[in-house]
Structures are given as C-alpha cells and as structure tokens.
Amino acid sequence: MITEADEALLRRAIALAAHAVALGDAPYGSLLAGPDGEVLAEAHNTVRRDDDITAHPELKLARWAARELTPDTAARTTMYTSCQPCGMCEGGILRSGIGRVVYALATEQLVELNPDSGAWPTVPTDGPALPEEARAPVAAYYRRT
C-alpha cells in the first residue's frame, strides 16, 4: 500500500530524474529512505556521463546499501525510484538486502514513451558444462569460510 509519505518520497525521486535531464543525463532518479523515512542516499542515472552501463541509480544505491548499512537496517529501508528497476538493478537490490521498492513508472509505461527501452535482445546460454571442474574452486572457497 502506498502512503502519503511514500508519495512525497517518490516525488523526490521524480525530481532527481528531472534534475538528471537538466544535467544531460538519462531521466532516472532514486533514493533510499531509512526505517524512519529519513533520506539516506540519492542518485540519478549517469550511464552516458560515466560511460558505464551499470550506472543506474538503483544499482548505485544497492551497492551503497550493501557497503554502508547493516543487514537489519537495509532490510528496513525503502528505495523510491522514478521507474521500475530493470533486471540488472533488481538483482543488485535483492543482493543488497533492501527491504522494499516503490516506483512511479512501470516498465510497460516506459516502453510506451521510449520503445527502445524494451528492445533488449535475449542472450543465448548453454550449460552447465564442466560442472565437476567448476565445482573444485567453489567448494574450496566455501570450505575455507
């Protein structure tokens, strides 16, 4: 359920997206709010500026949360973001332990505005291959820790 407090923080994420556009960056903005609603960190998309395909604000904040927050605090944070996180960012959010995401624009709505946003090809994959060989370094690592 989206509350009035959620809406206020979501409007801040949208303002970050607008600021990104003013700077010449792509129109995406996000923030992390702690358990009490305090803004902990903010970011906007800098993919073009940084020449880094991973410079999405959601992924930047997920990295920040994993580095700076305890697992308990991360689990009680909420990410507010101007658009629904992509698959790459979803993975980072999951691994960071962030507890909740609230977004303003769904992926389907983004694709209506920018059809290229939905034009990602699928990458063929094959495997598993050589699982016994691959198992050795993984098993050695986890026996060590």
From TrEMBL:
This is Nucleoside deaminase. GO terms for molecular function: catalytic activity. It comes from Kitasatospora xanthocidica. It holds the Pfam family dCMP_cyt_deam_1. CDD domains: nucleoside_deaminase. It comes from the Bacteria. Residues 4-121 form the CMP/dCMP-type deaminase domain. InterPro entries: CMP_dCMP_dom, Cytidine_deaminase-like.
